Amino acid sequence: MKKQTAGRDALFEFAPQFAALNDDVLFGEVWAREAELPARDRSLITCASLMTQGVPQLEAHMKIAKENGVTKAEMVELITHLAFYTGWPKAWTAFQFAKEVFD
């Protein structure tokens, strides 16, 4: 997985410790544990979690998921499945993000 710098790029001057935790611990250590759970699977889990919360970071993580090998068909199935558990409006929003990322 490529080195993550989003935290430092967006927040380093304002919240340097948070930026470092984001880039070094979350993405540098947790996401790097490929032997325990591959990045592709982590991406699916993360997208599912973010969709249930209805947060805008979902779109960025869909891009990461695509880079990690998640297919359009798999993302569509994830959203369709979760629509019944998390709510129709969240599914609509997720599909809008997915269309931008996977088309």
UniProtKB/TrEMBL annotation:
Residues of the Carboxymuconolactone decarboxylase-like domain: 16-100
Entries under SUPFAM superfamilies matching the protein: AhpD-like
Entry's transmembrane regions: none
Record InterPro entries: 4CMD/NDH-1_regulator, AhpD-like, CMD-like
Stretches of the chain forming a coiled coil according to its record: none
PANTHER family: 4-CARBOXYMUCONOLACTONE DECARBOXYLASE FAMILY PROTEIN, BLL4600 PROTEIN
Name used for this protein in its record: Carboxymuconolactone decarboxylase
Protein species of origin: Listeria floridensis FSL S10-1187
